[in-house]
Amino acid sequence: ELGAKTMLGSSTTLNVAAFYYDYSDYQAFAQFGPVQTVINLDAETTGLEAELTSRPIEGLTLRLGASFLDTKVKDVPLPDGVTIEDHDLPQAPDFSGNALARYEFGFAGGTVGIQGDHGAAHASTLASSLLGLVDERCPSVQPFTRVLRNAGTIRGCRGGLRPHICVCTLD
Q1: What angle do CA 53, 99, 18 make, to 5 degrees?
Q2: What number is the average pLDDT over the span 103-129?
Q3: 135: closest CA among 118, 117, 120, 123?
Q4: pLDDT at residue 74, rounded to an integer
Q5: In degrees rounded to 5, what are phi and psi of residue 124?
Q6: 2 within 8 A of 10, measured Cβ to Cβ
Q7: What is the pLDDT of residues 2-61, one digit of tens each?
């Protein structure tokens, strides 16, 4: 893994990382007749991640992030007992991204924060039951949206009051 954390001006940071993992004895699921078994296979992951965070004015935080993955589990036996194929790692989208805006301000002796954030992921394949057994083509994993995820007193309140409002939608 190779990465960098960089200040861009006085209020913005950029974090980037590139990585490569080569697994031996990755624990994968395989179906042999009616029995599901954990077997050890070779796998590899290559990726790039970046996050940009800015605090342009007091109380305001803006953040963008992105991740790109290329994954492979090698020589996965399929339930037919004959076919052996390479598959993507389960729950490892090709791309995922996020954006966040948060504003904090003083209120009633504490600090209130209002936040909106959005995240999305895209995968070219999605394994059935997320176990890597059957390759079902899937155009994308549903993106999600959260609005006003955290709204409430978060600092300076002895009682620990933290109201939580979450509005979730699937696009």
Answers
A1: 65
A2: 70
A3: 123
A4: 93
A5: -80, -25
A6: no
A7: 999 999 999 999 999 999 999 999 998 888 878 888 999 999 999 999 999 999 999 999
Query: What is the C-alpha to C-alpha distance for residues 163 and 109, in angstroms, rounded to an integer?
Result: 16
Claim: this prediction has a pTM higher than 0.70: no
pLDDT digits (tens, 9 = 90+) for 74-100: 998 888 878 898 988 887 888 888 888
* Higher-scoring residue by pLDDT: 72, 111: 72
CA atoms of 65 and 98, how far apart (whole Å)? 5
CB burial of residue 133 (10 Å; 0-12, 13-18, 19+): buried
DSSP output for the chain = -EEEEEEETTTEEEEEEEEEEEEEEEEEEEEETTEEEEEEEEEEEEEEEEEEEE--STTEEEEEEEEEEEEEEEEEEPTTSS-EEEEPPTT--SEEEEEEEEEEEEETTEEEEEEEEEEEEE-SEEEGGGTTSSEEE-S-PPPEEEES---EEEES-TT-------EEEE-
